[in-house]
Write a structure and sequence with these properties.
Elements: H1 5-12, H2 16-23, H3 31-44, H4 50-57, E1 62-67, H5 73-86, E2 92-97, H6 104-114, E3 120-124, H7 130-138, E4 143-146, E5 154-158, H8 160-173, E6 179-184, H9 194-208, E7 218-221, H10 226-238, E8 245-248, H11 252-265, E9 274-279, E10 292-295, H12 298-313, E11 322-325, E12 328-330
Parallel strand pairs: 1-2, 1-3, 3-4, 4-5, 5-11, 6-7, 6-8, 8-9, 9-10
Antiparallel strand pairs: 10-12
Length: 335
């Protein structure tokens, strides 16, 4: 049986209005009454009905976060940043995964919008259709895009073009001439702009350094996981590719798979192939060999996203906010 606010009021010997005032930390309630009500709440294990409260107040105190999957280190570190910033906030987080299935993105967004399931929606590397974005704007439900940018939405991203440029520039300066690149799908249905931006920055660095970009050394992947890195090296070797470096623009986890397969295949890193990753995950410094990579502060993206969510939900942001964080080259033994 569900415990109601009236049950708490009866146990504490006060009105249900008083219980509501305690729940909302109303300063007019005396310390003695507050103590009595809180004791009743604890004893009865009462939890306020936030959905019902949302229908009355027009707020749910919920932030919806949508991603293709939540299994990669990017999503996990982003959520870590959210959790670090939340503290004892009254906001709750609901996660929605499209699982890469066609049509699910639109379906989930409609459920969140028309079902009034959240006060803010955060999209991780997912680009919404303009029509549904317009519907969110019309209904004054803010959207925050991570690693993507559209007119009318808040944007949080790393300067991926610069990140790709830093990787390419470094490998060229190290004297590498045949440089492969492993990147996420450039024109995938549920990817942000980051794969294309990293690739363009990388190409520009090669051009500036007088090194030709070889399109035959470009591999696009979908899952951004350890296996992708292993399979990428196998693909290079099977094709007889003569490469002396690779930029794993799809992330450190992919680079780690590449390193493991290199060890299994007898390919020496960095002597035969220099490897540069992207992310600077915590474990990147302790793999063998330690991974040279482009650092992007994913947890910082999460912290900033939460701050913007709170302000947007409160109606404090009249114009779309755009935050672009700078990447950094971290040099280690793999390159």
């Amino acid at each position: 049986m569900s415990i109601t606010i009236k049950d708490v009021a009866k146990r504490a010997g006060v009105s249900h209005t008083t219980v509501s005032m305690v729940v909302h930390d109303d300063k007019r309630i005396t310390a003695e009454t507050k103590k009595k009500v809180l004791a009743a709440i604890e004893e009865l294990k009462y939890h306020p009905n936030y959905l019902a409260r949302g229908l009355v107040q027009g707020k749910t105190n919920t932030i919806a976060i949508m991603a293709t999957f939540f299994s990669s280190f990017f999503e996990m570190n982003f959520l870590k940043g959210i959790e670090q910033e939340m503290g004892d906030s009254e906001f709750q987080i609901n996660e929605y995964s499209t699982r890469g299935r066609p049509g699910v993105k639109q379906q989930i967004m409609e459920q969140i919008l028309y079902g009034k399931r959240a006060d803010v929606l955060i999209l991780l590397s997912i680009k919404p259709d303009k029509s549904i974005l317009d519907e969110f704007k019309k209904n004054e439900l803010p959207i925050i895009l991570i690693e993507e940018e559209m007119k009318g939405a808040h944007t949080l991203k790393t300067d991926n073009y610069k990140g790709g440029f830093l990787a390419g520039e470094y490998l060229v300066k190290k004297g590498r001439k045949n440089i492969g690149v492993i990147v996420g799908e450039i024109n995938g249905d549920e990817v942000g702009t980051s794969p294309d931006e990293r690739l363009r920055g990388f190409k520009r660095a090669l051009e500036d350094g007088g090194v030709a970009f070889n399109k035959n050394l470009l591999i696009q992947i979908k899952n951004f996981d350890y296996r992708d890195g292993k399979e990428a090296l196998k693909e290079y070797l099977t094709a007889g590719a003569k490469l002396d470096a690779v930029f794993c623009a799809a992330g450190d986890y992919v680079a780690m798979g590449f390193l493991e397969e290199a060890k299994r295949q007898g390919v020496k890193v960095p002597q035969d192939i220099a490897v540069v990753g992207y992310d600077d995950l915590e474990m990147s410094a302790i793999v063998n060999p330690p991974l040279t990579t482009i650092k992007q502060s994913i947890t910082e993206l999460g912290r900033e996203a939460f701050k913007i969510s709170v302000d947007a939900a409160a109606g404090k942001l009249k114009e779309p906010k755009i935050i672009v964080l700078a990447p950094e080259l971290k040099i280690r033994e793999s390159a």
